Structure formats: structure tokens, C-alpha cells
């Protein structure tokens, strides 16, 4: 009787560990996606800032130099 419950416990432990690994992998994938989105967001924001600076420079600072 003890051996059977041990086997069942071990099987459920394996299932639990597998689920945990799956959750961890999903979490890592989602984290990587978020990081990628942040990098793209920063990049597009930098481009926007540079574009705005170029417009400002061409409109106003050309008269000062």
C-alpha cells in the first residue's frame, strides 16, 4: 500500500514539475517578448525625438547660426 501511494505521489510530482517547467518557459518567452517590444519602443521613440530635433533645427536654429 505504501509503495503504491509513493508511486502515485511521484507521478503527480513529475506532472507538477513538468507543469512548472512549462510555466517557467512561457514566462521566459513572454519576458523576451516584452523586452523586444521595449527595445522597439525605445528605438521608435528615439527616431521620433531625432526627427523632431531635425525639424526644430531646420526651422529655428538655422536663423541663429
Which characteristics define this entry?
65 residues, mainly alpha, 0% strand, single chain
Structure explained in plain terms:
The protein has 65 residues and is mainly α. The protein has one helix spanning 2-64. The longest helix has 63 residues, at 2-64. It is rod-shaped and about 90 Å long. The chain starts with a helix and ends with a helix. The model has no long low-confidence stretch (mean pLDDT 82).
Task: Give the structure's gist in a few sentences.
The protein has 65 residues and is mainly alpha-helical. The chain is built from one helix and no strands. The termini are far apart.
- Percent strand equals under 5%
How many strands, which pairing sense, and closed or not: the largest β-sheet? none
- Mean pLDDT across all residues, rounded? 82
Number of strands: 0
Discrete helix count? 1
Termini Cα gap:
92 Å
Task: Give the overall silhouette.
Answer: rod-shaped
Order of helices and strands: H
| Uncertain residue ranges | none
Report Rg: 28 Å
The residue fraction in helices comes out at: over 70%
Structural class: mainly alpha
Q: What's the helix and strand layout?
A:
Layout: H1 2-64
Amino acid at each position: 500500500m505504501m509503495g503504491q501511494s509513493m508511486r502515485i505521489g511521484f507521478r503527480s510530482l513529475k506532472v507538477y514539475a513538468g507543469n512548472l517547467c512549462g510555466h517557467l518557459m512561457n514566462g521566459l518567452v513572454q519576458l523576451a517578448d516584452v523586452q523586444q517590444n521595449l527595445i522597439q519602443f525605445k528605438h521608435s521613440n528615439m527616431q521620433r525625438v531625432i526627427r523632431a530635433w531635425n525639424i526644430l533645427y531646420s526651422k529655428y536654429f538655422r536663423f541663429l547660426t
